[in-house]
Amino acid sequence: MIKMKQMKRSCDYLMLSFEDAWRRIAAALAPLPPVRRRSALVSGLVLAEEIIARENMPSFVAASMDGYAVLSSDDSSERSITGEQDAGLKLDLAVTKGTAVRIMTGAPLPAGADAVIPFEETVEAAGVVRLLSAAEPGANVRPVGQDIAAGEIALPKGSVLGPAEIGLLAALGHSEVSVHPRPRVSIMVTGNELVAVDEIPKPGQIRDSNAPALFSAATACGFDAVALPHPIGDDACKLEQSLVEALAVSDMLVTSGGVSMGTLDLIKPLLAGLGEVLVGRVAIKPGKPLTFAMVQGKPVFGLPGFPVSSLVCFELFARPALRLLSGLRLLWRPCVEVRLAQTLRHDPDRTEFQRAIVETDPYGFTARSTGSQSSSRLKSLVGANALLILPVGMGDFPAGSRVMAFLINQPEALADLPLPIPVSIR
Q1: CATH 2.40.340.10 corresponds to the domain 335-407
Q2: Residue ranges in the chain whose pLDDT is less than 50
Q3: pLDDT in tens, 226-250
C-alpha cells in the first residue's frame, strides 16, 4: 500500500486551460508499438510501415473491356477472328493486319494488338467482325504499371486500413503487415454510493450509469473496452489494488469519481503515489477535477463522477487520446460555427461545453440548448449532437450569437485542436 500522507490535495494542482491540459496529455502519449498482423485482420488499424510495390500493377498489358483486340493502324473494316483470349491464362495468339482476337476484360493483350474495340461497336458473323468505329491506339487497354509502378509507394506509413487499402495489400502480395494495435481500455467506476444496475438502491445510493455509458463510448469509437464488474468503494486499499490490476491488462485506464476535494476522493493521491499526475484540474465546465496521470508508462484518466462530466471529459480527452495511441492522425471532431437560437448563460471563469442540438438552415448551422446543463442531468446529453464552446473570459451569449461547436456525432476530421478556440459575437 502506498503512503498518502504527503500527497497533494486536489486544490494544490495548477488550474490548466483546456488547451494546455490537452498539450500535456498529448506530449505524454505515443502510438502503441507496432505488431505484425494478417492483412485480412487489420480493418481500421493504422499502418506502421511504408508499403512499396514490388511489381507493376498490372504486370501485363490487359484489356479493360470485353471486345476485340485489334491493330489500330489497320484500316480494314472487316477482320477475321483468329481466336479468343480469356482472363487468367495467356494464349499463344497474335493480331496482324486483317485479323482480330475476341478478348475479355482483364485478359492479356495478344501480340501485335494495341487497342480493343468493345462488342457493342462491332457486328460479328461467320468468323468475321465488322468494326463500326475506328480504333484509336491504346483504346480500352491497361498498360503495364498503370495502377501502380514497381518501386512506387503504394501505401504510406500512417494509412488507415479500410477495404480499399486491404484489397491493395492483397493485390500486392502482402499477407501480413506491421500495424499499431487497437488499444484496450479498462473502465473503473468508484464511489460508496454506487450499486450495480440490477440492484435495488438503498437510501443514499444510486445505480451506476457511468460504467455502461463509458463502456459504450469506448466501443462506439472502435476500441476494445472492459468494464470492471462492480463499482469500487472509496477504500484506499481496494482502489489501489483495482488500479494496479486494471492497468496490468489494458493500455489505458479510465476511472470515474474520486477526483474532487472530498475526504474520500482518493484517486488523485493514489495515482500520484503509483506514478505521476500531469493534469489535476482544468478550467472547464463540466469537468473541472479532470485528472490525467502516467502510471508504469500507461495513461490513466480520472474522470469526474457526475455522469455528464464523465462523458464530456471522455469525449474531449480520452477519446482523442485513444486515437493517438492507435496511431490515428485525425483526433478531433469537426468544429463549426453555429448561430445560437436562444440566450445562453455562461460563467466567464471557465470554458464551458454546453450540450446542444445543431441543425442546418439556409444560413449555416443553428444550435439550440438541450435544457438544464447540470452535470448530474444525463438527459442533457440525450439527443445532443454538439458541444457548444463558450470560452473563458466571456459572459452570457445572447440569442443570435455565433460560437464554435464540436459536432460529436460526426467522425474525426481535424488533426490538431483549434488553438485558441475561435469565437465571435455578432
Answers
A1: yes
A2: 5, 424-426
A3: 999 889 999 999 999 999 999 999 9
Strand partners, 148: 57
Whole-angstrom distance, CA of residue 423 vs CA of residue 413 = 19
Class of domain 62-142: mainly beta
pLDDT of residue 377: 92
Architecture of domain 10-32+181-325: 3-Layer(aba) Sandwich (3.40)
Whether 412 contacts 383, CB under 8 Å: no
pTM of this structure: 0.89
pLDDT at 426: 43
8 Å CB contact between 288 and 304: yes
- 123, 129 in Cβ contact below 8 A? yes
Residue 418: predicted pLDDT: 67
- Say how far apart CA 284 and CA 294 lie, in whole Å: 21
The CATH class of 35-56+146-180 is alpha beta
Domain map of the chain by residue range? 10-32+181-325, 35-56+146-180, 62-142, 335-407
Tens digit of each residue's pLDDT (9 = 90 or more) over 97-144: 999 999 999 999 999 999 999 999 999 999 999 999 999 999 999 999
pLDDT given for residue 376 in this prediction = 86
How many CB atoms are located within 10 Å of the residue 393 CB?
Answer: 9
Q: What is the per-residue DSSP string for 232-283?
A: BPS-HHHHHHHHHHHHHT-SEEEEES--SSSTT--HHHHHHHHSEEEE-EES
Same-fold call for 10-32+181-325 versus 35-56+146-180: no
Q: Are strands 115-118 and 67-70 parallel, antiparallel or unpaired?
A: antiparallel
Distances 225 to 86, 131, 208, 230 between C-alpha atoms, Å: 50, 63, 17, 15
pLDDT at 261: 87
Task: Give me the pLDDT at residue 5, please.
Answer: 46
- The amino acid at 164: A
Q: Exposure of 86 by Cβ count < 10 A (0-12 exposed, 13-18 middle, 19+ buried)?
A: middle
Contacts of 305 (CB under 8 A, 6+ apart): 189, 190, 191, 210, 256, 257, 258, 259, 260
pLDDT value for 176? 97
